[in-house]
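Minutes, project check-in

Agenda point 3 was the complex the collaborators sent over. CS summarized: two entities, 638 residues total, and the question is how they sit relative to each other. Sequences were read into the notes so everyone works from the same version.
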Amino acid sequence: MKKNKSLLLSGPYIAWMVIFTLIPLCVVLFYALTDVDTGAFSFGNIENLVLYLPAFWRSILYSVVSALICLVIGYPVAYYMAHCRPTAQRFLYMLVMLPMCMSFLLRTLAWVGLLQDTGIINNFLEMLGLPRLSLIRTPGAVILGMVYNYLPYMILPLYAIIVKIDNRLIEAAEDLGCNSIQVFARVVLPLSMPGILSGVTMVFVPAVSTFYISNKLGSTDIVLIGDIIERQFKQGDNANMGAALSLLLMVLVFVCTGIMNRFGSDEEGGVLV
Amino acid sequence: MKKLFCFLLACVLSFGCCACMETDDRVTINVYNWGQYISEGNDGCIDVIALFEEAYPNIRVNYVTFDSNETMYTKMAGGGITVDVIIPSDYMVGRLIEEGMLLELDFDNIPNYKYIDQRFRNTDYDPENKYSVPYTWGTVGIIYNSKYVDEEDVTGWELLWNEKYADKILMFDNSRDAFCITQCLLGYDINSTDPQEFLACAQKLAEQRPVVQQYIMDQVFDLMENEEAWIAPYYAGDYLTMADENEDLCFYLPEGQGFNTFIDAMCIPTCAKNKKEAETFINFLCDPEIAGGNMDWICYGTPLSAAKEYMDPEVVNDPVAYPDDEILDRGDGYIALPRSATRLMEELFMQVRNGIAVHLPKKYS
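CS then shared the predicted structure for the full assembly.
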C-alpha cells in the first residue's frame, strides 16, 4: 500500500522523465544511426566519429585541467567559508553565487573585452608604457574562462560537505597526537572526499561539453567538441552527425563519472574501515 | 478582511489582463532579416519599422535577425516557427523556391514593385518574378586597415592568406561565401559543382585556418572598428557603415580576380500566417522615400533608382556602393546549387572549421 502511494506521488516525475529524457534519447539514437541524405539505417556517422577523436581528447584534457584548477582554488575557499561565523558564511555563500545570477554568455563576453588585443588589460598596459600581451586566443584563456565560469560549482558542494564535518573528530585526532598536516590528510580530506567528487563532476561535466567559451576565447585551432556539435546543428544542417557526436560525448561523460565514483566509493570504504 | 482584499486585488489584476488583451487587436508579422540590415533610427537616419507601424496602426512588426543564409535555412527547415517576411540572398531564394518553401506573391498588394529597376527583374534565381522582391544588392570585397596593412600587400584575395598578418585576419563563417573566395583565388567558377574543385578549395581554406583570428559574420563591425582585426572579407555596404566609425578602413575588390555580386530579396515563406500584411510590409520597403532613407543607413545598393533622389548624395556617388559597370562585369552572382553540392560544400566547410583532416566523403572517391 505504502509502495503504491509513493509510486503514485512520483508518477508525474516519471512521466516527465519518459517524455523529456527517454524519448529524446531514443530520437538521438535514431538520428545517429541514420544517413543524413537518405534517412536509411547506417553506421556511417558512427564510423566518422574517429575523425573527431582529437577534439574529444582536447575537450577532456581542457575540462580535467579546469576541474583540477577549480579544486585547488576552491578547496581553501570552501574550507575558510565553512569555518567562518554563520553571518559571514551566508555573506560569502552569496558572493560565490552572485556571478551565477548573470548569463554565462555575458560573463564570457566580458572576458573577451578584458583580454583581447585592444581590450581593457592591454590598453592599461599600454598606458603604463608596457608592451602588450597576447592573452586572448590561447589555451590559457580557454582554461581561464572555464575556471571562472564553473568555480562556483566546485565551491558550493565542497562547502556543503566541509561544514558538516564534526569538529570533535578533528579534536580527537589532535588529542591522539596528529600534527596539523596529519589531521588534514587523514581526517579532513577523507571526510570531504564526497564534496571533492561531486565538485569535480559538477565542473567536469559542463566543461567537457562547453561550446561558447572556446569559440570566444580560444584560437581557431582550439576546437572543442561542444562547438562542433553546436555547429553541426546550427550551420551544418547535419543533425545526424551532431546526434552521433552527442551520443559519444554522453557515453564518455558516463564512463568518466563512473570511474570517479568508483574511485570515490573505495575511498569512502577506506574511511569506514 | 485581508483575504477579501487579496481577492479583490486578484480580480482587478486579472481584469486588467483581459482588458489589455482585448485592446491589442493588431496583427503581428514576424520579419526575419540579416543583422544590422534595416535603419532603426540611429545616426539621424529614419526608423523604418516605427514609420511602418505609424502608417499601418493595425500591424505590429516583430523583428528578428539571423547571421547567415545557412542559419536562416536551418531554422526554417527545422519547422515549428512562424515567419512572415524573410530577406535571404539570391542563391538561397533559388533554393527555397526549388524546395517549395516560398509562397507566390500577390503583386496587387505590392504596387511599388513598379519602381524596381529592370536589371533586377527576371533574375536567375526567380526568372518569372513570382516569389521575391529585391531589397538590396552589393559586392563582396576585402576591408583592411590602412594603418597596419602595407599597400604593396593589397593585391587580391591572397591577402587573406598572408602570414604577416596572422591572427589579425577574419574570415566568413558561412560556407558559400568562404568557398567563393577560394574559388575566385584558384580561378574556378563560383557556381561550380565539381567535387574535386570543392576539395581543392577546402584544402586551401584549411591552409588558411592557422592565420585566421576568428570566423565571423556580424561581429565584423566591432572587430574592425576597434582594430582588434585588420583584414576581413565582407559586404561593401557594411564597409561604408564601418568606415563612418574608423577612417583608416579601406575597401577593395581584388584586381584581376573574380568576386561575388549579390542581390538580397524579400520573400514570404510557406510558414507565414499573415500574408497580406507581409505584402504590405514589402510594399512599404519599396516606397522610394522609405527605401532611400533605409539605404542611407545600411549603405547597400538599392534596386530602386527612384530612391536615389531621397538619398544622401555622398552615398549615391560612392564608388564602393555603386561601382562602375566595368568593374561590376568582373563580378558574378551565385545561383542555387543542387542540394548534394550544397551539402558537400557545408560538410567540407565543417571539416575546415572543426580542424579535422579535409577529405571527400566515401561516395565521391
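Noted in discussion: The longest helix of chain A spans residues 239-272.
Follow-up: revisit at the next meeting once the mutant set is ready.
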